[in-house]
Amino acid sequence: MQRFIFLITSLLIFQLCSFGQFRVGLKGGVNFSDIIVSNTGDFFTDEIFGSRVSFHLGSYLSNSISGQLSWQLEVLFSNKGYTHKVEGQTLNVSLNYLNWPVLLLYQPTRKLEFEIGPEFGYLISGEDIVNSFDLGIDLGVKFNISKKINTGIRYCYGLPFKFQMDKSDSDENVPTYQNSVLQIFAGFNLINECSQK
Fold it and tell me: Which of 153, 168, 186, 187 has the most beta carbons within 10 angstroms of its beta carbon?
């Protein structure tokens, strides 16, 4: 599987070289993750869930559309989750995702970029009551410290999903949840531009 992903990524980079300037890099940072629970009825209360600190690692590829607009694709391993209070004890729940943000970037200055777009996710390990598929909306800002190094902050607001549980466990409707993640990241451009000769 890892060889297949590497092959697909390599072919994608090779193809994009014919389309002008683009960037390829690695990134990583800190996650401040939480879960928003609603439609709880008497089964859950939102107060029993809290935030946790974790991390994300991955790669990105971006290509210009015009002078100030570009798009960016990312592949991230992201550890999310929440804390959960049960009978006076706090449990640390870890949710491991593969995430694919698809972003539109607006660069008003050389140093500053704004980003927005959907983020698709697949749960590779974690709680059984959480859906395997996840979808959110990303909004962030990035600072280009140099041609190689960048840093930024991003918020991902997850769309609501129902917990995977037997409806007979609750007298009310099945509660819904949303992943909420604030990320602080740093990136390194392995390739800053490429053009076909």
Answer: 187
For residue 137, give Cα distances in angstroms to 34, 57, 112, 122: 15, 19, 20, 15
Name the pTM for this structure. Answer: 0.81
C-alpha atoms less than 13 angstroms from C-alpha of 25 in its C-beta half-sphere: 20
Does the residue 169 lie in any domain?
yes
Domain count, the chain: 1
User: Would you say residue 12 lies in a domain?
Assistant: no
Task: Tell me which residue of 138, 141, 137 sits closest to 153, measured CA to CA.
Answer: 141
Cβ pair 72, 101 in contact under 8 A = yes
Domain hosting 144: range is 17-191
Residue with tokens 């410290």: 145
Task: Identify how many contiguous H helices and E strands the chain contains and give both numbers.
Answer: 1, 10
Residue type for 96, please? N
CB 178 within 8 A of CB 161: yes
User: Using one digit for the tens of pLDDT, what is the confidence trace for 157-171?
Assistant: 999 988 776 655 554
**CATH label of the domain that carries residue 45:** 2.40.160.20
At 133-149, the pLDDT tens digits run: 999 999 999 999 999 99
Which helix or strand (DSSP H or E) is residue 6 part of?
helix 2-16
On whether residue 60 sits in a domain, the answer given is yes
Closest of 141, 144, 139, 140 to residue 189, by C-alpha: 144
